[in-house]
Design goal:
Layout lengths: L2 H10 L1 H16 L10 H33 L24 H17 L2 H40 L13 H6 L7
Helix pairs in contact: 1-2, 2-4, 3-4, 4-5
């Protein structure tokens, strides 16, 4: 699959939500020095939390995009979605690691810049996905992948990761167990 399809999807979706929209919000609402008026130890803690959230989010996003490229035969875009059900890596622990990663990045940005408007963007993204995913995305996945997705949905939580990775029954039957965690 050509890399440009993935780059286009990345630039249009997470690129817009995680970079362009926050930049517009910050440009129109934020003061010039995000560290002012906080004592240094609090700034260091805030920066550490912010960078940890952003790092975790970027890691999850990179892993999930790589898995979609390597195994999903599609992109992260709903308009060019995967043709194969991806149940590898972080998807063995939680059903929505890409959304979790994006939300971590948004929360990290809001924390870094001490921005209430970015916090509202984060909360809006969470609320939108809490509604959209079960009502639209999961229904579409059930239609596309049938019983395989229903088994996955029964075994892997939507938001809170399970400790042990889930092994799909179709892999345990064939002995072809994916260990890409």
């Amino acid at each position: 699959m050509p890399i440009w399809r993935h780059l286009r999807a990345i630039l249009l979706l997470p690129g817009t939500v995680l970079v362009v929209v926050p930049a517009i919000i910050l440009r129109s609402t934020h003061r010039s020095n995000p560290g002012e008026a906080w004592p240094l130890p609090f700034n260091i803690m805030r920066w550490a939390v912010s960078l940890s959230l952003i790092g975790l989010g970027l890691t999850l996003m990179a892993q999930t995009i790589r898995l979609f490229m390597a195994f999903g035969e599609g992109t992260l875009s709903p308009l060019d979605s995967t043709r194969r059900l991806v149940v590898r890596g972080p998807y063995r622990h939680v059903r929505n690691p890409m959304i979790s990663g994006a939300c971590c990045i948004l929360l990290g940005e809001a924390t870094w810049f001490r921005s209430v408007p970015l916090l509202l963007l984060f909360l809006s993204a969470v609320l939108l996905n809490v509604v959209y995913i079960p009502l639209v995305e999961e229904r579409g996945l059930e239609q596309r992948f049938g019983e395989d997705y229903r088994a996955y949905k029964r075994s892997v939580p939507r938001w809170i990761p399970r400790r042990q990775p889930w092994t799909p029954p179709w892999e345990s039957q064939t002995g072809d167990v994916d260990t890409a965690d």
